[in-house]
């Protein structure tokens, strides 16, 4: 029986294949007889429990850790009520929310506190954190090849205010630095996979071995 009721797939950057890994993991769990739900980052717009924080982000207050934590608590309660005691929920880039806070230039101390409190909120789900990492330049080039350069320039403009791939890479490095500083405060199991040097099957095997 799978002991982790929540699997968080997280990585700072685009093109690492987080969604691909999440879908593959969901299929593998189903093949093993474990019911699984998969949510991608854009699904947050349809989650009523996250509405208040999404509104804060739109208002330019994405560093509001209190609202984000309250929303995470509501989300955890909803997952448990919806059957997370018997199924596994896989989330791509939704939690632990460090990229949202870092993008909003949240100070490190509130982020540390948020991470500690988030662990308390999620404890009944026994979350597994999957860090998807690798060569940021290679991953971005893959994403642009798949989605087109214009996608990359639009993303750069949205995240940095500049239509520059170099600015976007610096932004991703900023998110990665924040992530590394938060990891010591994460109290549950984590596994790190490198999708630019390892195959999907290798990464999937590493995750499954931790479940």
CATH topology: Rossmann fold
**Quaternary:** single chain
Q: In which range does the helix fraction lie?
A: 40-55%
Radius of gyration from CA coordinates: 17 Å
Strand content: 5-15%
CATH class membership: Alpha Beta
The chain-level structural class is alpha/beta
Give the count of helical stretches: 9
Number of structural units classed as domains? 1
> What is the averaged pLDDT score?
93
How many extended strands? 5
Under CATH, the homologous superfamily reads P-loop containing nucleotide triphosphate hydrolases
SSE string? EHEHHEHHEHHHEH
CATH architecture descriptor: 3-Layer(aba) Sandwich
Neighbour order of strands in the largest sheet: 2-3-1-4-5
Cα end-to-end separation: 9 Å
What summary fits the major beta sheet?
Answer: 5 strands, parallel
Gross geometry: globular
Describe the structure.
By secondary structure, the chain is α/β, with parallel strands linked by helices. It is globular and about 45 Å long. It has a single domain (6-206), classed as Rossmann fold, CATH 3.40.50.300. It has helices at residues 18-31, 51-58, 65-81, 98-103, 108-122, 136-147, 149-160, 165-182, 200-210; strands at residues 6-10, 36-39, 88-92, 128-133, 190-194. It has a 5-stranded parallel β-sheet with strand order 2-3-1-4-5, with helices on one face. The protein contains 9 helices and 5 strands.
Task: Provide the fold topology.
Layout: E1 6-10, H1 18-31, E2 36-39, H2 51-58, H3 65-81, E3 88-92, H4 98-103, H5 108-122, E4 128-133, H6 136-147, H7 149-160, H8 165-182, E5 190-194, H9 200-210
Parallel strand pairs: 1-3, 1-4, 2-3, 4-5
Helix pairs in contact: 1-9, 3-5, 6-7, 7-8
């Amino acid at each position: 029986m799978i002991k982790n009721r929540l699997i968080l797939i997280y990585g700072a950057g685009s093109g690492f294949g987080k969604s691909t890994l999440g879908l593959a993991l969901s299929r593998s769990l189903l093949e093993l007889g474990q019911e699984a739900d998969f949510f991608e980052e854009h699904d947050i717009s349809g989650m009523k429990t996250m509405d208040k924080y999404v509104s804060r982000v739109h208002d330019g207050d994405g560093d509001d850790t209190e609202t984000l934590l309250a929303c995470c608590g509501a989300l955890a309660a909803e997952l448990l009520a919806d059957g997370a005691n018997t199924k596994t929920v896989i989330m791509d880039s939704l939690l632990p929310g460090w990229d949202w806070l870092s993008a909003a230039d949240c100070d490190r101390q509130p982020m540390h506190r948020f991470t500690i409190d988030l662990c308390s909120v999620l404890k009944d789900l026994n979350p597994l954190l999957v860090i998807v990492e690798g060569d940021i330049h290679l991953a971005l080039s893959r994403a642009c090849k798949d989605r087109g350069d214009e996608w990359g320039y639009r993303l750069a403009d949205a995240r940095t205010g500049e239509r520059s791939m170099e600015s976007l890479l610096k932004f991703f490095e900023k998110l990665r630095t924040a992530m590394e500083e938060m990891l010591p405060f994460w109290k549950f199991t984590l596994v790190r996979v490198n999708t630019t040097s390892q195959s999907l099957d290798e990464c999937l095997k590493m995750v499954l071995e931790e479940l």
